[in-house]
Amino acid sequence: MKDKVALITGGNSGIGRGIAKRFAAEGARVAIVGRNRERGKHVLGELEAAGVEAGFWSCELSSEDASATMVAEVADRFGGIDVVVNNAGVGGRRAGVEDDDPPGVRWQKLRGPNLDAPWFVSSHALPHLARRRGSIVCISSTATWHGNWGTYGIAKAGVEALVRSFAAEGARLGVRCNGVSPGWITTERDAEEPPSGGSGWFLPPSALGRMGTPAEIAAAVLFLASDEASFVTGQTLIVDGGLMILDYPSMKMLEKAGAGMMSGSGTGEPVDA
Ligand SMILES: NC(=O)c1ccc[n+]([C@@H]2O[C@H](COP(=O)([O-])OP(=O)(O)OC[C@H]3O[C@@H](n4cnc5c(N)ncnc54)[C@H](OP(=O)(O)O)[C@@H]3O)[C@@H](O)[C@H]2O)c1
Fold it and tell me: What is the pLDDT at residue 193?
């Protein structure tokens, strides 16, 4: 990533902040994008204090015009773009979805930031990426597989389809596109709003008995964005501590065998059942 230009949406908070820091540590020049200027200024300060060339763009990514302008400004300021990480996104609570919202309103609130945004940013960045044989990484969610998460899961499933479409579209230009699908990840914003909705966990949030970290997502994003993944395109890597492979009804049995998951103390070491 040395001297490459990475545009990271949602880089002013949570997982995106972790991705920005990791790319910066690898020598990239980093453009972070979000709406909240205070958080943007804070993360920009962290990056600059580490001696990184970085910039913050405040942008409403569900607007095509605003996204196009932001992409053009980033390319202009850094002289091009090598990597786009479409990380910005919101779940129902942060998107302000109300129980009595009509279906269309509920859908709009989730679709804009989660699906329109990566579509607009990737589309407008594609010509710049094509000049550098660059790559795109999109952040989806294991909510894609959990029907109870409603329109958020629908939008994120769209993101995984977008990954495959862009991989096909970008291939002839030498541009790869992949995805990372996180399970439950703890961020600095959990203090404001606990991820389980404040009611505590009914069962542990992964097979490893814990939540993941932004750094663990950033490691997967870095791999897919880098030349180490030069023959990988159109794929979405699930990074969830084994959440999706769990067979919850059988957990009592695993617990008996010593897996320790029900207490949230599982280490991930093999179970000698
Ligand atoms: N944390 C998890 O457990 C988890 C699990 C699976 C997937 N994910 C996904 O991972 C990504 C990051 O989540 P996170 O947990 O780090 O959440 P977060 O801390 O709330 O960060 C979300 C980021 O997206 C930006 N954003 C949201 N809507 C935007 C819009 N319309 N225009 C511009 N920027 C916008 C936010 O910027 P502003 O605040 O400045 O608007 C913020 O930087 C999201 O796509 C999320 O769906 C998270």
Answer: 74
